[in-house]
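In line with agreed milestones, the collection of sequences with tokenised folds has grown. One record among many is set out beneath this paragraph:
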Amino acid sequence: MKQYRLNRLFNPVSNKCFDVAIDHGFFNEVNFLQGIENIKSAVETIVKAGPDAVQLTPGQLKYLQSIPGKQKPSLVLRTDVANVYGASLPAHAFSKMISRPVLQAVRADATCLCVNLFNIPGAPEVTAQCIDNILKLKVESDLYSMPLMIEPLVFRPNIEKEGYMVDGDIKTILPLVRQAVELGADIIKADPTNDINDYYRVVEIAGATPVLVRGGNKASDEEIIIRTSKLMEQGVSGIVYGRNIIQHANPALITKVLMGIVHDNVPVKDSLKALLA
């Protein structure tokens, strides 16, 4: 029965998903708020661009779900809050799950839950908390047929780039992705690799579990378009971009351009031209 909700999450023609993450305010970092200071306006702008899904927190999902009509994007509900993104790890780092997440998702008409699986240098206790979160979510999400998206996130040391530095080492990403699959993920949301041409190995290690690729660090338009095109060519099931959308000069336009790549295989050259139109 999870398929009923997955049918709303994935495009019925391409069977791919473009999800825009606007859940950054959950993590108590001022630099994460750029582009979403006015969350209502940010959500409305993205909704008009027509992605398949928008990822939001319990306190902000109202700005999506209060929009009338049946054509709006599906809701992906962020279920965990963490304090691990600063320039240094706090003395008591944590990743805590919201109360009764599946019930909240059902009440909010969500199509999917999203939960982290952190691998952070110097913070094994946070990884343990993430695994506990997932173990609790898995049984309840199965019981209520709510798809579970697990986000294996590999950090570099927090002192690099003020705490949000993706480690694109494929040797670190592969086992964490596989662990997420083994824990019961219905969808994987994984980091991009240093060499994007190696990403087929991430798809392979996930097996039958669809892989959506995170945006990672903020990138130029050309870089993000080329990367997205190469990822789709390697069999990923879609993308989940946040700051590369919401901090863009024209979030609606970049969303539409990337949607063309994900669903219609629009070539890089044409995608770049569309940004200048």
Observations:
- The chain has one domain: 2-276.
- The two ends are 43 Å apart (CA to CA).
- The domain at 2-276 is CATH 3.20.20.70 (TIM Barrel).
